Amino acid sequence: MPSKKYHHGDLKNALIKAGVEILSKEGIDGLSLRKVAQRAGVSHNAPYSHFPDKQSLIAAISTEGFKQLYDELGLAIAAFPRDPKRQLQEGAWAYVQFAMNNTDTFKIMFSGVLKKEKEYPAFVEISHKTFERVVDVVKACQNAGVLSSTRPEILAVAVWGQIHGIISLRLEGQISHTVLDDFDIREIVLFALNQVMLASPG
Amino acid sequence: MPSKKYHHGDLKNALIKAGVEILSKEGIDGLSLRKVAQRAGVSHNAPYSHFPDKQSLIAAISTEGFKQLYDELGLAIAAFPRDPKRQLQEGAWAYVQFAMNNTDTFKIMFSGVLKKEKEYPAFVEISHKTFERVVDVVKACQNAGVLSSTRPEILAVAVWGQIHGIISLRLEGQISHTVLDDFDIREIVLFALNQVMLASPG
DNA sequence: AACATGATCTTGACACTGTCAAGATTTGGA
DNA sequence: TCCAAATCTTGACAGTGTCAAGATCATGTT
I need a surface site. Which of A22, A53, A188, B62 has the fewest CB within 10 A? Predict the structure, then answer.
């Protein structure tokens, strides 16, 4: 890792990293191309050698976020290999935790900050893979009799939407008042999942 | 409605209206204070006589959006006075339609564009009222045996989150691929609601 | 080994943004 | 009538994304 070369060596990744850091410290409004460049130690126009515009940097950061979410979902699922119901519950909880621990990255991924996602293949791919990971757990739950036997993709959307909506409303401050005083967010998530799941001996 | 006075007369509302129009035509990125001022026919700094900063204008626009959502929810519910199950279904559908017909207003209301919502009493009030409207339908459903008899606020969060999550993912382009080819958005919403509702003779 | 080419980075500029400061105009009440 | 407050304008500033042009470096071909 040389120190002061004219060519940075790995500027592209350095910019993504700087972007993630700014995002977590200053939020979305603090994320500017120029600040990212400065933090990476290059001039304000250096990023344009690696990203055609700001949207592309945001796409790269979002993609990185999806990779992390994908991994954490995988860990939560792998922790309960023989218990699909628990996989669904802890997978959902991992999703919620990711959203709470990486609020602004989560918002960039899901709150319309990134336009024309379809133009970024890496983003599309990892987001599809993540969805399929949800579908897999749903299928496992169906086989275990924990979820009804409709088309798993539809059920996956219903379940994913459920969790996504609750945590989104929470992050937006829309839930706090009447409810969060008595029930914390984990209870609400598990309760919501139970509403969808079939009565079972577990 | 005088034409060319130094004092506009009702600039505050004119600015809100201009903001809504720009929002629907150019999206969030096109919404600037200066453009709003120009569309209202005043100088670029006139808005500061009515709003301390851009956030306040956004809060006003969001509040207006909530009022509209509140009204449309009310209409959908009132259309089926004796059928709570249908009220829930059509209320949810009204919510989804509002989101699809006013995409960017919806995003401003719910996607973290507005910070520190608690500082805007009118916004807090109408958003609470909207939530209570959901709670009312949930209670009616409970009385009709269509929903389980947990605390209605918790159930309301679960149901609201469900619908909110599905339409949010949809607006973000996250649902289209595998699912939306076969099922349209209304089917998915109704299916998701059915998952939550108890089996009933209806 | 010299060199040309393309990748990478810098400097400079532009229009646009939100916001502050200071001044002009109008309105309403004393 | 006249003053004070509300309303609106003009001017300025730093920060933004992006374009254009030039500087520097790395690399492969001869």
Answer: A53
Which residues of chain A have a CB within 8 Å of the CB of B163? 161, 165
Rounded Cα gap, residues A65 and A102, in angstroms: 9
pLDDT tens digits, B48-58: 999 999 999 99
Report the residue from A153, A169, A188 with minimal CB separation from B179: A153
| Contact assessment for residue B16 and residue B61, using Cβ atoms and an 8 Å cutoff | yes
Instruction: Note whether B112 contacts A117, CB cutoff 8 Å.
Output: no
Predicted pLDDT at B184: 85
List all residues 6 or more positions away from A89 whose beta carbon is below 8 Å from its beta carbon.
Answer: A190, A193
What pLDDT does A202 receive?
Answer: 43
| Distance CA B111 to C1' C17 in A | 21
As a whole number of angstroms, the distance between CA A178 and CA A170 comes to: 12
- Amino acid residing at A167: I
Mean pLDDT for B66-83 is 98
CA atoms within a 13 Å half-sphere pointing along the CA-CB vector of A200: 19
Collapsed DSSP state (helix, strand, coil) of residue A196: helix
Q: Angle at the Cα of A143 (from A139 to A147), degrees rounded to 5?
A: 70
Return the closest-CA partner of residue A91 out of A39, A135, A145, A36: A135
CB of A175 within 8 Å of any CB in chain B? yes
Instruction: Report CA-CA distances (Å) from B155 to A26, A97, A105, A171, B132.
Output: 35, 21, 29, 18, 12
Q: B162: which chain A residues are within 8 Å (Cβ-Cβ)?
A: 158, 161-162, 165, 192
**Which DSSP symbol is given to A46?**
G
pLDDT in tens, B21-67: 999 999 999 999 999 999 999 999 999 999 999 999 999 999 999 99
Q: Which residues touch strand D (CB under 7 A)?
A: A 5-7, 31-35, 44-45, 48, 53-55; B 6-9, 11, 37, 42-46, 48-50
Would you say B138 and A140 are in contact if contact means Cβ atoms under 8 Å apart? no
Say what the pLDDT of residue B6 is: 53
CA distance B14 to B20: 10
